[in-house]
Amino acid sequence: MLQQHLHRLHLQKMAMGGISDSEPSSKTEKKKGESKMITLELFREGLTIPQIAEKRELVISTVENHLSTFIESGEVSIRELIEEDMLIKLIVLMQKNPDKTLSEYRELVPEASFHQLRSVRFHLNISSKTIPT
Fold first, then answer.
1. Are 2 and 39 in contact (CB under 8 A)?
2. By percentage, how much of the chain surpasses pLDDT 70?
3. Rounded to an integer, what distance in angstroms lies between the CA atom of residue 85 and that of residue 92?
4. How far apart are CA 120 and CA 91, in angstroms?
5. Residue-number span of the structural domain to which 104 is assigned
6. Domain check: are 95 and 52 in the same one?
7. Which of 10, 49, 61, 109 is the most buried (most CB within 10 A)?
8. 56 located within any domain
C-alpha cells in the first residue's frame, strides 16, 4: 500500500515535470507533511514506532514527533501513543502543576519520556480549547 502511494507520487511529479524518470527521489523533494503522512500510514498498517523508524531510516524521536502532530486533527489518539496509566499520571501532574517546564515534569516522573510529556501537554492544550468557558 505504501509502495503504491510512493509510486503514485513519483508518477505525479514526473507528469508535472518535477522529476525525470531516471532522477531518483530524495528527502529534500518531499512536499511538506508528506513524510509525516507516510509515517501515519505505516502506523495505521500496524507497525510499531521502532519498526517505522527502522523501515524509514529515521530515529525513533522523529517518528514519535510525526505521530504527535496528528493528535490535534484526531487522526491519532493520545491513547495510541501513551499507555493509560502513564497518561493518567501525566495529565494529573500537569493539571496540578500547569506552569512547570518539561524538564521539571521529567524530574517528577523520570520514567516519562520527553515525547510523552510533550504529547500530553499538547493534548491538554487542545482539550482546553474545545471546552467552553
1. no
2. 71
3. 11
4. 7
5. 80-133
6. no
7. 49
8. yes
Residue 11 belongs to some domain of the structure:
no
Q: Residue-wise over 38-64: b if at least 16 C-beta within 10 A, else e? A: bbbebbeeebebeebbeebebeeebbb
The amino acid present at 87, given as its one-letter code, is L
| Residues 92 and 131 grouped into a single domain | yes
Whether 62 and 105 share a structural domain: no
Residue 17: inside a domain, yes or no? no
From residue 108, how far is each of 6, 87, 91, 117 by CA, in Å? Answer: 43, 14, 13, 11
Contact assessment for residue 68 and residue 118, using Cβ atoms and an 8 Å cutoff: yes
Q: Helices in 16-108 by DSSP H: which ranges?
A: 34-44, 49-56, 60-68, 78-81, 84-96, 102-108
Residue 15, all three cell numbers:
507528469
Cell 525513533, residue located:
60
For residue 8, the model assigns a pLDDT of 54
What pLDDT is recorded for position 21?
Answer: 46
The span from the CA of 105 to the CA of 114, in Å, is 9
Q: Which residue is associated with the grid cell 518531499?
A: 30
